[in-house]
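Lab manual, section 2.4: Encoding a predicted structure.

Procedure: take the sequence of the chain (67 residues), apply the prediction step described in section 2.3, and record the output as structure tokens. A sample record is shown.
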Amino acid sequence: MSRFAPDLAPADLAPVILAAPAWARIGITVRDPRLRARAAETLARSILDELDADAPARDANQLSLGL
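Recorded output:
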């Protein structure tokens, strides 16, 4: 995980997981593999959506510095 998000801690992910839809959190524990896969996808999507929402938006008017 540190390769993709070096400043992300498990404590940062816990509230995101708890904010995911309840059916997805429960759905990852069911026996039906199709429902479990759909629930896992929904859970992953909600985590990624929340993490992307925290990323600062890039301003098109801001010039980049050539370092």
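Check your result against the sample. The chain has a mean pLDDT of 82.
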